[in-house]
Amino acid sequence: MLPKVNKIVLAYSGGLDTSVILRWLKETCNCPVVAYAADIGQEEDWEAVRQKGLATGADEVVIADLKEEFVRDYVFPAFRANAIYEGSYLLGTSLARPVIAKEQVRIAEACGADAVSHGATGKGNDQVRFELSYLALNPRLTIIAPWRVWDLNSRTKLMAYAEKHGIPVPVTKEKPYSSDENLLHISFEGGILEDPWNEPEEAMFKLSVAPEKAPDQPTYLELTFEQGNPVAIDGERLSPAAMLARLNQLGGANGVGRLDMVENRFVGMKSRGVYETPGGTILRCAHRDLETITLDREVMKIRDSLVPRYSELIYNGFWFSPEMKMLQNTMDYAQSTVNGVVRLKLYKGNCIPVGRKSENSLYQESFATFEEDEVYRQADAEGFIRLQGLRLSMQAGKR
Hints:
Helix content is 42%, strand content 19%. It has 13 helices and 14 strands. A five-stranded parallel β-sheet has the order 3-2-1-4-5, sandwiched between helices.
């Protein structure tokens, strides 16, 4: 039984799930529904989305351009921290949910709605990400999660409902992929991908060419960073959204950024996902490389020890938690010296750093050279080694 509400703001994409949910909310809750769509860089005909929302039953359709905010306030902070989940996933979907939820709450407050709704299923991570964000930002809002209460519990039933109500959807029974796209990535789930043995079909990929079909000549670029953020490509300064879009183009053209993995969802099950993250892959590669000359060794060790926990908080939906704020402050403190330029070579799916320079560089050729120097006394190494080996010698003596 759903609670009585007066007005709902639905996170709406125009796809199968949210199109059906929009009509279902109108029929079930008998109150005004605002369809809210977030533009975070997905390829979309936004006027068509608006018209479809109105035709499906929305009392109002709100389309919010969040591209710059998404990259500036969510993607870049995560990449300053080198966030990566289970060693592979660059968190493209996870990072998008808090920015969508934040704007949804703002719209609800502005239009006098007392409820918010989303299209995440009861099996996935997104329900947690959306709802933890709602609770952190405005716990007074009623949350409606249709997938947890209705009987339309399969893609087949959703498509039948859509057909019955005359709702056009971009999903067919022959190719029922579920995809999520934004400026950072595009993900694919469902269909033949539910069997982890099946190789993804090449026609499925959208942002990148196959590495074997990428150009035979490498692409070189120089990426400039200021305090851990990328600010220029080949000397041209770009806004955060424009920066990521350009990196996507460069990476995609060279087959960079594909990932096929089975990950552990927060709710407990394993899930297979296929991802394209060309720009993010380049950004992380360059950022980590620049840190090798600008970060103190012990600072890097401590920071790297926190990356798994930081990434897990993003994946699990705790972006607005106090522990996340604490970790972000720690990560950002370490970035004050991460300034400089990295030269990269993109070639057939690979992103290879081939040069780096920085005014904050801790690398000194005078110390590292294999030629004769006047700054390092090699004889000092003997005492250093003896002290490091003292406990090993004592253990050997015991034996």
